[in-house]
Prior knowledge:
It is a single chain. By secondary structure, this protein is an alpha/beta fold. It has one domain: Purple Acid Phosphatase, chain A, domain 2. The protein has helices at about 20-30, 45-50, 55-70, 120-125, 130-155, 165-170, 170-190; strands spanning about 1-10, 30-40, 75, 95, 95-100, 105, 110-115, 195-200, 205-210, 215, 225-230, 235-240, 245-250. The protein has an 8-stranded mixed sheet with strand order 4-5-3-2-1-11-12-13. A hairpin with a 4-residue loop joins strand 9 (about 205-210) and strand 10. Helix 1 (about 20-30) packs parallel to helix 3 (about 55-70). The longest helix has 27 residues, at about 130-155. Mean pLDDT is about 85; it is low at about 260-270. Manganese (II) ion binds next to loops.
Amino acid sequence: MYSYRSVFISDVHLGSPDCQADYLLDFLEHVQCQKLYLVGDILDLIAMQRKMRFPPSHQAVIAKLVALANSGTEVVYVPGNHDVEMRNFCGQSLAGIEVRSTAIHENADGRRFVVCHGDQFDQVVRYSPLLLLVGERAHEFLLWLNRGCHAWRRMRGKPYWSLAAWLKQRIGKAQAFIRRFEQAALTAAERDHRDGFICGHIHVAGFRQGRNGLYCNDGDWVEHCTALTEGFDGSLEILHWSENPCVVAREPKPARQGSGVPETPPLGVAV
Ligand SMILES: [Mn+2]
């Protein structure tokens, strides 16, 4: 059993064929925490509008989250852009899950983070990197190809590997997009006088130490299967869940005063 003070997950996309519900269920079975944040795009109401589907494994994820909320875990749900309708429930409790438009998380070490899905920065950064490059249809095709690749590898007994993730990491424009997104989040955190910003949305887990704050992205359960975790001392890590769970990133140390450019932490995850 993995034990944490807090766990942040987002971009689960339940109801979409790309959701890695089995991995997430396995993760939720093996991880315990005092506080679980669902940082948006948990449900994919857009995909469900196109084709209504909600297989048993997706239902099991909902049942597990509700069970956690009713057995001592504080579960906070901050809806995103694919489950934007859930924002109508902000301020309410759904089956024990607290729905909020934004949350403030206080770390064990006293740092305070804004917790928000991140789609509000779309205006600033304009579109996702792959949409920008190849258009929506091609992005869907890539995800479809990714599913085929996953099925083929599974048949051959190989662990999960993401084609889409591999491509994204290698596309320069995608990296430039990610930088703009990080900067927008850091600026927002600074404006709110917080110590950092915790979000999802772009499906790239990682940290970025800004001049006055820390950017944290918990990734997704479509391409990478990652969560942001807070230990009991307040330290933040990104955990990649697969047959062999591993920590793929730790929060960078703040740049020293006067050292100029902040250090560059690893971006995304190597899967
Ligand atoms: Mn999103």
